[in-house]
Automatic annotation (TrEMBL):
Pfam families: Aa_trans. Keywords: Amino-acid transport, Membrane, Signal, Transmembrane, Transmembrane helix, Transport. This is Amino acid permease 3-like isoform X2. InterPro entries: AA_transpt_TM. GO terms for biological process: amino acid transport.
Amino acid sequence: MILFAFVVLYTSNLLSQCYRTGDPVNGPRNYTYMEAVKGILGGKKVKVCGLIQYLNLFGVAIGYTIAASVSMLAIKRSNCFHRNHRRDPCHMSSNGYMIAFGVTEILFSQIPGFDQVWWLSIVAAIMSFTYSTVGLVLGIAKVAGNKSFKGSLTGISIGTVTHIGTVTSTQKIWRSLQALGAIAFAYSFSIILIEIQDTIKSPPAEHKTMKKASMLSIGVTTIFYLLCGCIGYAAFGNDAPGNLLTGFGFFDPYWLLDIANAAIVIHLVGAYQVYCQPLFAFVEKWSAKKWSKSNFVTAEHDIPIPFVGVYQLNFFRVIWRTIFVILTTIIAMLLPFFNDVVGLLGALGFWPLTVYFPIEMYIKQKKIGRWTNQWIGLEMLSAACLFVSIAAAVGSIAGVVLDLKTYKPFKTIY
């Protein structure tokens, strides 16, 4: 995890210097990741970048829908456990909660542009601190109650019997590789870094502000990731759930678990919008260019809203974004394997978007000569991360295959 943090910090700094083509201070702006690749690298790489980025954002929306529904379900189940004193397993379907989350996102998706979701981002950050702190505190309390650290340096032992069966050596390999994908997903903000940087005021130069922001955010999140991961494993060992707050390693105080899971849901409502806005903007910009004479696509209608102001209604935006949210919700109901989906998304997006394109653009931007020490070092870093991504993808795909063996569409019960 520390290695991932250093790699992402380094490559995000390279990427931030590619916000402007030619010169990071005075060069022409690139408003999106795709525009940066087009302005610096050009050629077929632009389409490859766009395809990977927007497919990844689409996948993130599916992953967030799954995660939010699991947290909403956890609130319901924790209250059920409390009422029945844990005598009832309280099994429930997540479908209704995915639909509820989807309806919420349809409403928030009508926010026209990326720069207008800043307040959702702030709320999401506060919620993230809230549930992370709750998980950490409950983990410390569990360790104190156990009066010992569970788990081992080598992880779960082969032959251990868990709720999904006996752990084999093959399964341990797959799950270990899948974990790499999950870590990569946790550091996947590079896919919208350029779009975020486009909202930063200058002077000072945008890349300098972005470098400070990346260093602070990666530093803080890495500390939380390590603390929650290590304390969670120390508390539960081989029985550690996939999610400390929804896996019911903790049962009491149930109200605190409810607060933490509510914070997760609120965080994901905001995070969904932050990640989807670049995709929304791309489709709407392309459509406006394709059908420039269509009032349905381009016309904005002013709708006065009391105490808020004037909302600009665009019929194409309303319908397309609604269809998008409905589609991600249906796919989430079809594939409700959060850990496997997250691992696969992290694996597929990590190398190309977080490592390869930032390095290639930086080399071109700075005119670094082939076979120089700096060029060799950057290419070796890229190659190493490619192997990590491939390994993580293999592990995550194996995890999905295992899940599909016992899976029934739209009938997932927790």
